[in-house]
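Example (one chain per record):
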Amino acid sequence: MSLGRYLSIKKSVLVMIVGLIVFGVYLYFFIGFHQIFLVLGHINSSQYTFFYSLALVGVLASVFFWSAAWNSILKSLSINISYRHAYLYYWASYFTDLVLPCLTICGELTRLYLVQRETKDNFGALGAVAVTNRIVAYAVVTVGLYSGAALILFKPGIPIFITNIFILFLLGVTIYMGVLLYLAFAQQAARNITRVYLKVLKTFRPKSYRISKIETTQESLANYYKGFQIFRQKPKLLVKPFIFHSISYLLSLSVYVCVFYALGIPASTPVFYIVVFFITTAFQDATASFSVGSLEIFLATLLVLYGISPGFSGIAAVVLRSAIFWFPLLVGFICVQILGTRNLLVPKPEDLEKRLKRTKKKIERTEN
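Predicted structure:
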């Protein structure tokens, strides 16, 4: 069954269009186009071009270091793909995360599929890589979030709703890290998940539930355990990915700084950038295409609370989102075309027919 049956890119595009219309209405009634045009007339075009170009370079570089960290973990388990392919795969998965609201899970599945298609490695080992990559990435996020929260919670004058949001973030990232560590260190964790998966498969798709499926799953589990065992025995293998992820997040944060400098907004405190960065990133990751319009409105409102004029706040929300959402969406779409994975989530009927024929032949060989 195709994931596209539940998560349609066409529906996501429709949601984006509706979101843009809503944001346009917000600009017209709550900020005013006259203020927008007044701000545009005072922006230094040379300064804007220089810093906005730096912001886009920062986006490209941050994704490169994300892919480098992931590729480093792959190589630790002797799963070898080129840095070029790793970079393209990461962009394709990033495109999926931006379009489909599935909390970055779709991106992980996309990378897993693309690497397995190239290397034919076992899904268990690739699953171990995915979880390990998430642990390293969120270790960086956890350190950054707790450090930022310490600055925010002990700084007077911060609006109470921002403080509450960061407390929720802290709880969320702590729970998420706990689940990831459980999957990595509790040998029974993956087995429990697999047992539930097989029960669901047996109940709802009994024709697909065969001994061969169980044997394949057990083989994947063995590789899954083996992958984590390597990292537990040699934790130094995670140092390089940790450094790469740290550089990536710093580059992502620099994108926000460059956008505000591009618009000529006076330099703000580190707390300001930390608040905007973490709130925007969490909102965008969680809602994907549904963030279009709603996140722009939230950003503009947040910037007004920090004393930035409504006109500059509206423009800043548009420009920032163009750098962190629309530009990556365009680059990811191009990479999807290069990789020929346009039908990764929503395959054509003829592709499904070919897959069904291959599956039927495998079943017949198994029965014989």
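Caption: Residues 1-7, 211-215, 345-353 have pLDDT under 50 and may be disordered.
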